[in-house]
Design brief:
The protein has helices at 2-10, 27-47, 61-66, 68-76, 96-112, 130-138, 152-155, 174-180, 186-194, 207-210, 214-225, 234-240, and strands spanning 15-22, 55-59, 80-83, 120-121, 127-128, 143-144, 148-149, 162-163, 168-169, 172-173, 200-205, 230-231. The protein is α/β, with parallel strands linked by helices. The strands form 4 sheets. Strands 1, 2, 3, 11 and 12 form a 5-stranded parallel beta sheet that branches. The protein has a 3-stranded parallel beta sheet with strand order 4-6-8, with helices on one face. A two-stranded parallel ribbon has the order 5-7. It binds zinc ion.
């Protein structure tokens, strides 16, 4: 029995990437609840001498312009803020100049809201197409963290933009398939987070969903903490893996 648990613990991922896609639908209320939860956990961890939970917020430009105080709080807490387009359109239905516009306007909005120029991107609906992959690379983005990479076939792996993995279930992001769209099962969702075996747990949350389940969220963080993982930002993941995931389409 103890051997089983020993092997089980070896299987645990070392890195946990928690990210939140922040859009106008989230308002300031649900995002503030999520921030309060993270602040509460980090205050306790700091008192216990345990490393902080770092997370990444992928924020739309529209949201940033309307909620500068919320972004200031994310910054003050030390969390990474990355680009999630300006107005959250389906990029597959936009032409290349509209896509460029969505990325630039998001960058500008974040800077206006007092955030440094973002180095990370997650496409709306987490669908990355090859034109957008090219735009990201040419405009100095360090990484993309979209779950569904349609760029690989056409774009190849000859680029320097890192593809940060996203945990999926049946090929779709966990939250989308298990919680938001199909199964409507927060308990299964959190169970799957607690029982991922792929080396990296990388989960997308939507504040307006998870804000109603913050004690369960904190429970998952506590469960994973006991397994000696580091909760790191998406950007830091690209640093610690040192190019292991380099190249959009390299998976
Ligand atoms: Zn989104």
């Amino acid at each position: 029995m103890s051997l089983f648990f020993f092997l089980f613990s070896l299987e645990r991922p070392r890195y946990v990437l928690l990210s939140f896609d922040v859009e106008p639908v989230d308002g300031d209320g649900s995002v503030s609840l999520v921030l309060a939860s993270l602040e509460r956990m980090n205050a306790k961890r700091s008192a216990a001498g345990v490393g902080a939970v770092n997370v990444t917020f992928f924020v739309t430009g529209e949201y940033a312009l309307k909620n500068r105080d919320v972004l200031a709080r994310m910054r003050a807490d030390g969390f990474e803020i990355a680009c999630h387009s300006f107005s959250h359109p389906l990029f597959l239905k936009r032409n290349v100049s509209q896509k460029r516009d969505e990325i630039f306007r998001c960058e500008r909005a974040l800077v206006i809201a007092g955030v440094p120029k973002p180095v990370g991107f997650r496409a709306p609906y987490t669908i990355l197409d090859f034109e957008t992959a090219g735009l990201l690379e040419r405009n100095g983005f360090v990484y993309d963290a979209s779950a569904l990479d349609y760029s690989a076939f056409l774009y190849g792996v000859f680029n320097d933009t890192v593809e940060v993995p996203v945990s999926t279930f049946l090929g779709l992001p966990l939250e989308d398939v298990v919680w938001a769209y199909y199964l409507h099962s927060p308990s299964l969702f959190f169970w799957l987070i607690d029982h991922q075996y792929d080396g990296v747990v990388s989960v997308i949350f939507h504040p307006h969903h998870v804000s109603g389940y913050l004690s369960r969220f904190e429970g998952s963080v506590a469960y994973l903490s006991e397994r000696n993982v580091s909760f790191i930002s998406n950007y830091y993941f690209t640093e610690v893996t040192d190019g292991a995931f380099k190249g959009i389409g390299a998976r």
